[in-house]
């Protein structure tokens, strides 16, 4: 078993606000003002989308470097949605500054489905919680 990532959040005095530490990095988490927060940082589902799009961008760049392909500048966006029936889904969009060939477009779509975070989200993840 290998630990892949670690993060810790410390509560702040303001309701819903916290400071996340991961390695030598830190960022704020909070809820939007419409939910009683102060919108000082990313909300939990924003962090989830950020993990997915970060992994997508890195995986595509690694693939391009490995294959000697020039993808050029691109962006990845994600929206997390839910409906009244309890269904949840993420819409991910990849946009390239310069058009790619049809063949490369299809390869990009295939790679997006194989990124590590995508694969984690597509399967069940066991979450064990302990009080320490």
From TrEMBL:
GO molecular function: peroxidase activity
Keyword Nucleotidyltransferase: no
Pfam family, one: OsmC
InterPro entries given in the database record: KH_dom-like_a/b (IPR015946), OsmC/Ohr_fam (IPR003718), OsmC/Ohrsf (IPR036102)
EC number: 1.11.1.-
Keywords: Oxidoreductase, Peroxidase
PANTHER family with a match to the protein in the record: OSMC-LIKE PROTEIN, PROTEIN INVOLVED IN RIMO-MEDIATED BETA-METHYLTHIOLATION OF RIBOSOMAL PROTEIN S12 YCAO
Name by which UniProt lists this protein: OsmC family protein
């Amino acid at each position: 078993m290998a630990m892949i990532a670690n993060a810790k959040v410390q509560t702040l005095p303001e309701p819903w606000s916290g400071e996340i530490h991961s390695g030598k990095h830190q960022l704020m988490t909070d809820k939007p003002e419409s939910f009683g927060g102060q919108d000082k940082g990313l909300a939990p589902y924003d962090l989830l989308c950020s993990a997915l799009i970060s992994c997508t961008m890195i995986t595509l760049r690694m693939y391009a470097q490995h294959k000697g392909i020039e993808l050029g500048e691109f962006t990845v966006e994600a929206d997390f949605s839910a409906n009244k029936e309890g269904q949840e889904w993420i819409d991910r969009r990849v946009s390239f500054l310069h058009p790619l060939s049809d063949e490369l477009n299809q390869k990009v779509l295939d790679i997006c489905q194989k990124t590590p975070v995508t694969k984690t989200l597509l399967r069940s993840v066991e979450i064990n919680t302990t009080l320490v």
